[in-house]
Amino acid sequence: MKERKFSPSGEGLVQVIAGVLFVVLLIIINIVDPTFYPTMWHLATSGSMEEIAEYIQGYGPMAMVMSMLLDIFVNAVGFLPSIFISTANGLVFGMWPGIIISWLAETIGVVISFYIMRYFLRDAADKLISKSTTLMKVDDFSGNNGFVVMLFARSLPYFPSGVITALGAISKIKPRDYILANLIGKFPSTALEVAIGTDIVNFQENMGRLGIIVVVAAIVYFILWKVYKRYINKRNAEREHDPNA
What is this structure's pTM? Predict the structure, then answer.
């Protein structure tokens, strides 16, 4: 088993500078618009799709930009639900534009959250993991198979986004693999959330389509779950024969 290596001083300095710049950015946003954070918090926690949709529409030509900023903020925070914003995007811009906007914004948000959490949590996780052989094996598995695990996790709709981000941040998954897995995996989960949420709001008009979406999604995810389990079982079997696999 290889000894774990901790961040060198140079990398630590980069992390500190990045953290300071991020805090400065937050302060600048508050100076420019003191109502931004209270408004974002209220909309993210209100659960009112109509209120969110009305807020977004109020920006006129800048509505898409504000919608993306709101969605990025919610996903970057990590523990706030973004389903209401995604549904509001579908109501305001139409289903497919709403899906694209929500998909890109959520991906950017969880990537920001990943870097923030890794900055604060990874060193502590390294020290804890290095004391346990079992945890080191699990951590090595997350590094070698992180892309597939993260891809599957992100493709699940309605799963707490912050939990997945936190697990990714303290794992050994490479940032490149994390970003790519989220970019791909977020699309089907976001598309389902926007489509189902929009059709539920307009239930009388889209009852038939909603039923078809739910049935097809259930079949697809059942197949994906079987494929994922087969992959994980195969990798575990390979590791039993070759610990370095």
Answer: 0.74
